[in-house]
Amino acid sequence: MAPYDQAPSERHSFLYGANGTFIAELYARYQQDPNAVSPDWQGFFAELGDEGRQVLAELQGASWAKTGAKVIGAADPDAPPPAKPGKGDKAAAPAPAAAPAAGITPEQVRQAQLDSIRALMLIRAHRVRGHLLAKLDPLGLEKRADHPELDYRSYGFTDADLDRPIFINNVLGMETATLRQIVDAVRRTYCGHIGVEFMHIQDPEQKAWIQERIEGIRNQTDFTTNGKKAILQRLSAAEGFEKFLQLKYTGTKRFGLEGGEVLVPAIEQVMKRGGQLGMKEIVLGMAHRGRLNVLANVMGKPFQAIFSEFQGNAAHPEDVQGSGDVKYHLGTSSDRDFDGNVIHLSLSPNPSHLEAVNPIVCGRVRAKQCQVGGQIPPTEESRAQVLGVLLHGDAAFAGQGLVPETLLLSELKGYRTGGIIHFIINNQIGFTTAPQYGRSGPYPTEVAKSIQAPIFHVNGDDPEAVIHVSRIAIEFRQKFLKDVVVDIVCYRRQGHNETEEPGFTQPLMYRAIKNQPTTRELYARQLVAEGVLSQEEADGIAKEFQAQLEADFQAATSFKPNKADWLEGKWQGLTTAGNDDRRGQTAVGSDVLKEVGLAISKVPDGVAVNSKIVRQLKAKQEAVETGEGIDWATGEALAFGTLLVEGTPVRLSGQDVGRGTFSQRHCVLVDQETEEKYVPLNHIRPGRQAVFEVHDSPLSEAGVLGFEYGFSLAEPHALVLWEAQFGDFVNGAQVIIDQFISSAESKWLRMSGLVMLLPHGFEGQGPEHSSCRIERFLQLSAEDNWQVCNITTPANYFHALRRQVRRDFRKPLIIATPKSLLRHKQAVSPLAMFAEGQTFHRVLPDEGVEVAGEKVRRVVLCTGKVYYDLYAERKARNVNDIAIVRLEQLYPFPAKTLAAELAKYPNADVVWCQEEPENQGYWFFTDRRIEKVLADIGHKAGRPKYAGRPESAAPATGLLKRHNQEQAKLLDDALSA
């Protein structure tokens, strides 16, 4: 039969048949020149699957010889194939088979060769797919069908071959083994309580390391008697804590860990082994399930404090203001000592939006790595010292988009953290949704393969297996500085929360759970059977812990927090915001401004700069030298550069930020010949300044914004900025804004000085490129939670940026940055406005009214780019009795400054003018606040009038003609009587 007439399965049988060596020779010819073999063989080789090609490569690379009953030179099926001949080289002829030893027939040699090849293919199949037969489900509900590629019969073996010795060349640690021994070894290694996925990894060293760790003599973690007792003690603490809460606070939501208690000793293994490998700090992030248990039994939060919170008491001292949050969202920090290695732990607070904390933890880790090593970017050594650990739910890991967005950052310059360890608490259910309805793949972990992370699936009712893979995970991470996933397959003993009846929707699962002994019970039985301890000793461990909980429960009634930890460590010396003007020292000496300005406008020697950029740099240089015409991008660069020479690092991240979306920034110069990058801001005072980081981010808003927010939480002494490509795109990161940036100080006592730059302005570019949805930020403004600005001058922008790190407190800053104003001839500032005696102005007075204040008939209040349209229209109409006043900061609302400005015009009516539709933008926020200011000063205007676009569902029209008509009308409404 010709090979092209065979079905794929038959081709594999044919390939592994007696013609194997002959086929290898043909394949070598085909690789060199496909036309060197007949068309039927061309088709055969072209349609081979990956495994078939792998076998042929191994056949080509093997040198076969017969000695007694074994074949010498069998290749490991995962060894790299021999190098292909170079261009012009002749293909090396396959090595001839050695002459058979006396008394051994060629047919016996051939059979021995085939046995080895088939056995190696069977071993490789288990490395790839053995996890599909692993016994992972503690409840035994998952029915796993045999996989044909894991059946020795699929490789031409029969039951009669089970006890025939086969040479496998020390694969699996055995030189020669029977088929029965081979099957037993691969099933024990890959199909027991641990299932490993690692063959998708392309790096040979990483793959070989895991293979050796799993298959070799290092495949076992030696548990001493004391070690086993310690595991039982930690399981008893995890279980006992949940039972105690269930008893004392029956029916109260706590999102307990019941069914996944093994997580506690698993994390502790990462801490203990990590400390031995040089790790000094862990930043944890997790959602609610098991959070209280982690806080108590891993982080060491006092049980008294937790019981006090259950009684309704505040989690922070009474003199610290804030709304607080529910118990299972809170974070904390502590130190744990493992055999003399002190590990600092910090658990990030997290809202109910599962997985939202992921990028925030990564950003915090990156910042801490820069701090411990004192270097930007962090070194490998500093990356090894700070670890991020993320705890996920199975349904959330598979379903939430922030998971792949966070994984995407893992190997990118500017965002690397040296690998996160991901623990999945796999309850095999998402609220009431079964896995087959919650994901398309067999596991929740499929997305982790996108970054070639090794994945360990493990049965949560086998504590020693869980701790074993946790140990492997931290060892792999510390060696390769890569992400690792540990999927702990367990169950959820209660419902989604403790007030539910899960049997409504999963009756079979919860019938099994009801009859399932707890992990602690099962492990105690194991240790009693092994003679490690007696049943009385096992029971005594649990009773002792319960007694401790009871004592702490009684003491909780009088418990009071004695301090808040929010202004410690790197935050020491900072304080809460006061009620003064809060301007900060933002002005810079003229000499420093010129030094910075000339340095960033210099064309560096040896760098082939684009000619268009050369012209821009010369224009900057002229503006700095003359002290006139400083534009927006130059003002921003002066802010960055002056901070850098003062020792303050600056980090700017976002899509296309190096060039700038509107080709305005060019803080990275690209050599036109080599594409090497030159950053002028890092060459102002080489060796005597802080580092400027600028990173063109991936096309992710939520992930990258979360990362930068996390960085700002850990590093208050750097200016950290995120820029949206267009302001509208910030809506892709809304969960980070709503749940963290806007409310973290109130909920969790966590400050941030993050700056969000959001290009905004109505220039007829359509509904998705006009509005940064500023109304959303204003609606979220309360309790002095952040600052919202729409700035119109480069000098004011300069001072706004610098005051972020030149005050003794931190608040997030949202700036609706311009687009057309980036090159507007009037949107410039003299250098003197950046220098001594200058500061940020929340309100900018009129600059063109020509009559006395009492003769002004109208004051038009506005913010942002529309000011320049109003100014031009007023000039075109030759109007001299209308004043135009700009609100550069919308929140905190500048009532005092605005009152002083409006008092200048006692006889004027007041109009609020905006480009945005009436139901969007600033109107609903400013209306009553302006009214209150007018009432406070007794102004006759009473209430402001509105001039702007009518209400609209979309932010803007997509038709330029209509846009121009709307723009003309709103200007007319603002300036007409």
UniProtKB/TrEMBL annotation:
GO terms for biological process: glycolytic process; tricarboxylic acid cycle. It is an enzyme of class 1 (oxidoreductase). One of its GO terms (molecular function) is thiamine pyrophosphate binding. InterPro entries: 2-oxogl_dehyd_N (IPR032106), 2oxoglutarate_DH_E1 (IPR011603), DH_E1 (IPR001017), KGD_C_sf (IPR042179), ODO-1/KGD_C (IPR031717), THDP-binding (IPR029061), Transketolase-like_Pyr-bd (IPR005475). It holds the Pfam family OxoGdeHyase_C. Its EC number is 1.2.4.2. Keywords: Glycolysis, Oxidoreductase, Thiamine pyrophosphate. Residues 73-105 are annotated as: Disordered. The keyword Oxidoreductase applies. This is 2-oxoglutarate dehydrogenase E1 component.
